[in-house]
Each structure stands twice: as C-alpha cells, then as structure tokens.
Amino acid sequence: MIDTSNLRIIFVHGLASKPPMADLHRLWKKAFIESVRVDSITLANALEEDDSIFQSAYWANAIPDHIEDTTEYVKSLNKEVNKVIRKRRKEKNNLHISKAGWAKAKITKFGLSILDALGTALTIKDNVIEEFMREINIYKNDQYIADRMREPLENMLREAWDKKNNIVLITHSMGTFIAYDVLWRFSHRSENKYTDYKKSKINYFITMGSPLGDEKLRDFMLIERWKKAPNSESVEERKRFYPLNIKKWHNFSAYGDVVCHDSTLDDDFFSGMRKDIRGYKIDDLKDYTKLYNPFITPEGKQNPHKSYGYLIQPKLSQKFKEFIS
C-alpha cells in the first residue's frame, strides 16, 4: 500500500499557446501517470484515484493576447499524447539515448536518425525561440503581467505549505523560470506574503526543457542577483543567488531541444548550491541529459521540446518513484 495522502503535485506549463486549463491539466496528468504505470502499477493507481493530489499553476491567460487552442486541436493533441504513451509502454526504460552517443544508440528503432533530429531542431527553432523570447520580454518589462504569471503558483504553494504537504513541482520551459523565480522570492523577498513561508520547502523540483542554463537569459532576467553573488567571497552573498527552499532538484533535457540548448544546470546552479547550502548529496541536484523526446505535433512535426514527451521519460518516472519510496 502506497500512502499518497499528504502528496501535492503541482504542474507549471511552458510556452503560452495552450489548451484550456482543464484540458492541459488532464493531458499532463494522463501522460505522467501512464509513464509511472510502466514502472509501478500500484503507484499509478494511487495517483489516479485521488484527484486532490494534482494541481496546475496555469498562467497562459496572464498573457494579454493569449488564445486558447480550439476543441478540434485539443482532440488532435489528445491522439498525439496517446501515441507517446504507447511509445513509452513499448520501449519501457529504453526510451533514452545511451552514454555511447547517438551513433551507437540505434535511434532508427524510434524512426528517427540523428540527421532527422538535427533537422527537426532547426525547423522548430525560429517559431519556438520567437515565442519564448516574446514571453521573456513581457515577464521582464511588465511587472503587472509578471505578477499574474507567478500568482497561481504562489497561491498553490502557500496552500500546500499550510497543509504541511509534501510538494513535487513539475515544470516545463518558461514554467521552469517562473517556478525558479517564485521559489527565490519565498527565500529572499521581505514582504510578509513571502517571509511568512521563509522556512517552508518543496520536496522535489523537476525542470524539463529548461532555459535556465542559458547565460544570456540569466544576465537578462537575473542580473541583480547574478551580477555579484556567484563570485562573491561572502557565502551569504553567494547564497542570495539561489532559492534556499528546494530539497531535491532534477533537471531533464532532450536531444534537439533548442530551448535547453545548454542542457546542464550543474555548472550554473547545482555545484554552487552544494558548496554554499548545507545538506545536499550529489544525487539531490542532478542533470539527466541526451533524452529522446518522441512527441509529434498534430501537424506531423517532431518537436523535442514538447512537454508530453518529457512527462513520459523513464528517468523522470523512475526518480519520482524513488522519491515516493
């Protein structure tokens, strides 16, 4: 018997072209649970039976010109999500790139060669990066909108902390940045709405397809924190750069995902956190790279950045199972 009565899993989505909140929540939950089911039917059933476990910090509608996906598109998207779930079931825990590299990974069994993957990355790059940079600029330059983007997650964390829940935060793309910023604010801001929760922590932070490894993004978005902190002689100043409320943080990046082209966070965050924040073990802060994201859009294009292809990653579900254990 697996006890999930005190578990709270919060999803934070990425780029803002999204299905309506209920549809997005249903699809994320479905992909995640069905991936867990491959490794543990008992755990998957426990997650499926209790709707209160899952929440979605949906921020897409904070973008002024956001238009939700149509009902027809959501139907098509549902079919593609079912396809990646079937791929996960078929390949089980082989759905990743071997340490020997792509040349020896026999990627053709996935119907994808290295040239196909590189070509796909190039074809989606302009569209994905253009949309991503648009949202980054809005977040940086319009604090009213940025507050609205952070608000759903902030409120859900307060509620979960008030209930003493064990919190798993699963984030994707721009959502990884929003979540990081929210956690930093709870660690360091002086307003009561943050300081009341200064000693509260999340148990497991998961980032997928994250842009946090990009140096230019950090300089643009985190300049006031990044400018001095990492190189300061003072431990307290260095600690100010990092959120201090994360017990475990795993980062997942897929081959060909242009948003997380700098696929590791160890050199940017994890090594400094281990050095300056007591208590971390090596496995508490870790990158999982060169993953294979099998998602194909309803238009028939492979998209290695898509959230559903990350949610069915074997490494992710295995590490989640270890966390629950």
Describe this structure in words.
The protein is of the alpha/beta class and 325 residues long. The chain has one domain (7-324): 3-Layer(aba) Sandwich (Rossmann fold). It has 13 helices and 6 strands. The chain has helices at 21-39, 41-49, 71-91, 114-141, 143-162, 174-188, 192-195, 215-221, 223-226, 235-239, 266-276, 307-311, 314-324, and strands spanning 7-12, 54-56, 166-172, 204-208, 249-254, 285-291. A 6-stranded parallel β-sheet has the order 2-1-3-4-5-6, sandwiched between helices. The termini are close together.
Describe the secondary-structure layout:
Blueprint: E1 7-12, H1 21-39, H2 41-49, E2 54-56, H3 71-91, H4 114-141, H5 143-162, E3 166-172, H6 174-188, H7 192-195, E4 204-208, H8 215-221, H9 223-226, H10 235-239, E5 249-254, H11 266-276, E6 285-291, H12 307-311, H13 314-324
Parallel strand pairs: 1-2, 1-3, 3-4, 4-5, 5-6
Helix pairs in contact: 1-2, 1-3, 1-13, 4-5, 5-6
List its salient traits:
globular
Largest sheet: 6 strands, parallel
Radius of gyration (Å): 19 Å
Tally the structural domains.
Answer: 1
User: Which blocks of ≥5 consecutive residues have pLDDT under 50?
Assistant: 101-115
In CATH terms, what is the architecture? 3-Layer(aba) Sandwich
